[in-house]
Amino acid sequence: YATLSKLAIHQRSHTGERPFSCPDCPKSFADPSVYRKHRRSHAGHRPHRCSSCPKAYVERKDLHNHQRSHTGERPYLCSECGKSFGRSHQRVHTGERPFLCPQCGRMFSDPSSYRRHQRAHQGVKPYGCADCGKAFRQPADLELHRRSHTGERPWRCGECGKAYKASWDLKRHRLSHSGERPWRCGECGKGFGERAALGKHWRTHSGERPYSCRRCGKGFGGASGLRKHERTH
């Protein structure tokens, strides 16, 4: 490393030391620059605002990544299927899931999904709603929740004018106009409008049951089946 401070930050990845603790939530950090960025998320200071929608970001690079959802820019070309995606797409083809949860053994293909999952174990919900007190793990979840108070629906369909609180709801709705089913099962050829629906369908072939009841250990292919079962206890 070029400086002793950079070396010290790196060494904390081995020791687990996180000397920078947030006074507003249970989070702590090894790197002071990451800590400062986190503090701004509590202060509500998001100077980098999207010109196409109401979203705003603490860091310019996060705004740049978000703007690709409007422009359609996908700079990474997949050598397997020719599609352009972010970096983690190729793991869809390889099946690689390098991020292992030490608590439950579940594995993830990208670090952001892994971090979200870790918060579920820790019960950390640092982002609280000023109107009702409900807390969330992600600032984006809080922003979406606030729209239930304001009634804001910034994502509007260009064909029928219907508006939605979240971008993924609009994407799902657009498929009802196009009839497109881009996610296809490699085993039986059945097509689906959403990747999550394909994942749920695939379990009918693989027999995988990743959702287990904490009381009796019974496994289920989907979260809804587990919730229905848990009510019997």
TrEMBL record:
- Mind telling me which GO cellular component terms the entry cites? nucleus
Q: Does the keyword Ion transport apply?
A: no
Kindly give the SMART domains that the UniProt entry links to this protein.
ZnF_C2H2 (SM00355)
Pfam families for the chain: zf-C2H2
Q: Which Gene Ontology biological process is one annotated for this entry? A: regulation of gene expression
Cross-referenced PROSITE patterns, in alphabetical order?
A: ZINC_FINGER_C2H2_1, ZINC_FINGER_C2H2_2
Can you tell me which residues the record assigns to a coiled coil?
none
> Which of UniProt's keywords are assigned here?
Metal-binding, Nucleus, Repeat, Transcription, Transcription regulation, Zinc, Zinc-finger
GO molecular-function terms, A-Z: zinc ion binding
Q: Does the keyword Secreted apply?
A: no
* Protein name, per record: C2H2-type domain-containing protein
